[in-house]
Amino acid sequence: MSTQILDNALGGVGHTPLIRLDKIAQANGLRCNLLGKVEFMSAGGSVKDRIAKAMVEAAERDGKLIPGKSVVIEPTSGNTGIGLAMACAIKGYSVIITLPNKMSLEKEALLRALGAEVVRTPTEASWDSPDSHIGVANRLQREIPHGIILDQYRNVNNPLAHEFTTGPEIIEAVTSTPSTTSKPSSEKVDVIIAGAGTGGTITGLSRAIKKKHNPDCIVVAIDPKGSILAQPESLNGVVDDGQYVVEGIGYDFIPDVLDRSDVNTWIKTVDDESFSAVQQLMKTEGLLVGGSSGSALAGALRWLKTEEGQVVANTPGKNVVVLLADGIRNYMSKSWFLKIAMEQEPSPLAATITQLLSRKENPKETHTPEALATIRTPTPASH
Predict the structure, then answer these.
(1) Is the Cα torsion angle 330, 332, 336, 340 positive or negative in sign?
(2) Staple partner for 150: which of 55, 60, 142, 369, CB 3.0–4.6 Å?
(3) Residue 51's closest CA among 261, 257, 297?
(4) Cα–Cα distance between 35 and 262 in angstroms, integer?
């Protein structure tokens, strides 16, 4: 986090904190350090701010963006679009974002608030269909004068942004935090875990850490069931319903920026465990994360129970970093979040409040601790 005045919001991209997830670690019997890289604290609200900034600035250096003329067009699941819309609002470029229908209303609203035009496309359209968000973006680019697709799926600045910013930030946080008796540390990034969408994040993180910091770091990529990114291919078995609700990870093709040789192991996740992990992060760690962050944590906890993972889980001082890609801001109208927030079983405290407020109040009555103790607090139901 900068302590100086920034020239504009792009100066607030990245520089996000690495936070201990001690309560979740304790609840799962982990002896290693479980750490979350909290990307919703970036200026545009997600890890994708980094690649948006990098792609725009590289295109400007290369003369591909012409002030006052260029129209930036991008197919995206939303967060890259928000980052691009923010960057282009600052720099003065027009923006068109093509967005599959399943993506949240909040993402569209934020895009429009930043001045972008939004075109929705059928979620079920395959990536190479002319009706998909990629196909529609390509058509618009062909027909709109000075239209340019920066193309997060092929743009080398996608993984480079993480190799040069996200990865080094994680390394610096880990290496600059001394090992102590109460909080031992290997002072290395021993495991890095992140969801895979375009794959630029996991690829860039792997290269940053393995090239210059710890070649033995274990890189774990998370892929939702219904996506085909994982290896071996047998992990990507046919599911009854190929559509997954979680946004921002998984694809029906292999993006060019994803180098699967940079990944040591893949974990497949399902929606229910992802959203349960979101709830854990909120209720125990106070982190208001989005669905793909839940996928990353759920995958991390699953991997830590494997034979390889248990060695790490049972070693004090080992540092396991989970990338938490975005915040809940983009998903608050989604049914899965409303279920978490609004349809929970009443807590014992809620029952106590109901009992107190249902009694007729005596203006002269003083609610001493002894008086309040006479109101029985229900025992929490076992689950």
Answers:
(1) positive
(2) 55
(3) 257
(4) 21
CA–CA separation, 154 and 226 (whole Å) = 22
Question: If we measure between CA atoms, which residue out of 287, 321, 292 comes closest to residue 304?
Answer: 321
**Contact status, residue 190 vs residue 214, Cβ threshold 8 Å:** yes
Distance CA 323, CA 35 (A): 9
pLDDT tens digit sequence for 68-103: 999 999 999 999 999 999 999 999 999 999 999 999
**Domains defined along the chain, listed by start:** 9-41+174-335 (3.40.50.1100), 49-149 (3.40.50.1100)
- Helices marked H in 286-325 — which ranges? 291-303, 307-313
CA dist 62 → 32, 93, 114, 150 (Å): 45, 16, 25, 12
Question: Any idea which residues carry the catalytic annotation?
Answer: 48
Which pair of structure tokens corresponds to residue 173? 């946080």
Backbone angles phi, psi at 96, to 5 degrees: -125, 130
For residue 131, pLDDT beyond 80: yes
Average pLDDT on 110-119 reads: 98
Distances (CA, A) of 162 to 148, 172, 328: 23, 14, 22
Contact between residue 227 and residue 244 where contact means Cβ atoms under 8 Å apart = yes
Residue found by looking up tokens 């980052």 in the block:
83
The mean pLDDT value for 230-240 works out to 86
Residue 292 · residue 312 · CB < 8 Å? no
Say if CB 9 and CB 45 are below 8 A apart: no
Phi, psi at 332, each rounded to 5°: -75, -15
Contacts of 260 (CB under 8 A, 6+ apart): 199, 229, 231, 254
